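S1.2 Input.
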Amino acid sequence: MQKNVFVFGLIAGLLVSIIMAISMLTMYNSSAEGHGTGSMVVGYLGMLIAFSFIFAAVKNFRDKQNGGVISFGKAFTMGLWIALIGSTLYVITWAVLYHFYMPDFMDRYCAQMISNAKAGSTPAELEKLTEQMNAQKEMYKNPLFFVLFTYLEILPVGLIVALITALILKRRKID
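S1.3 Output.
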């Protein structure tokens, strides 16, 4: 089981990291309007594709190594570990991209959020949003918050896929 988890976790992590890196670098270097939304959609689709390896890993383990049976708990645990490995590779990749290739990402992101809000917001709402964005930028400078925010971006997707996988693939031994 451990080898299965490690191999499929690495595959998922590499896949989601490559998709995210290509998407972010393309978006970062683009001057097109609305590129952030497209990048976000591609990013979350990439996460779902990468975490589909949770299903493949659990099914492989259940059918080929565990006699066709697996409990919900064991299936979920496998999915959890694969999601953690994949998410960790994603966090590491984002840290490298952010610190070495996109150090002004948060400035650009916050400016885009404020610019998007200008059309339908009152001056008071814009001021409040600006304060929130500035606070978020400051928090993002702290390595602990940087890592936590990045995990919060991907790990819930992996946990949902692990939960659905465990529900679908659980199978008790039939006597």
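S1.4 Remarks. The radius of gyration is 19 Å.
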